[in-house]
Amino acid sequence: MPPDATGPGQAGPGGAEFSRPLPLGLVGPEGRSETLTASPAERQALARRFGILGIDALEVRFRLEPEADGAIRAAGHLEASLVQECVVTLEPVPQRVVDEFVLRLLPAGRAAAYGPEDLDEIETEQDVADLGEVAAEQLALAIDPYPRAPGAELPAELQSEAEGAFAALAALRRRQTQ
Hints:
Blueprint: E1 21-23, E2 32-37, H1 40-50, E3 54-66, E4 72-85, E5 92-106, E6 120-123, E7 128-130, H2 131-142, H3 156-177
Parallel strand pairs: 5-6
Antiparallel strand pairs: 1-7, 2-3, 3-4, 4-5
């Protein structure tokens, strides 16, 4: 673990559920690799945060490379096993999440400059990046917002209501174009 880093299960800056602070100065010219594995307590806290039933495993591998402008390019590979509630039946639905991401960690005091083709940029506090919080945010983005159990379908009365609303819109559009 890097000097001045927070260990598993300890609250880092802001009391994050999964905190792994890394001073940017520890990323040398040759770069640095980090592997983060969430403890059972951290996974439970993240599941509460995301409103899901549970997270059985969470591991994130980072490759950190310094850039000429002082920022750090962070390429990550996230793997998680989690359990969500089916939006139709409310049954537990096990899910496996695998996600790749790339972003930039900015030195303190440097504002992010977003353009349409730019990588996401994260401003650090006192030149310390919380890789655990970065991982948690990436997991939140990768979670299926509408998980369904195999074979789960909306009740017929709800399906017909939805179809009826769209049919009414289609009829209105036909009248307007005539």
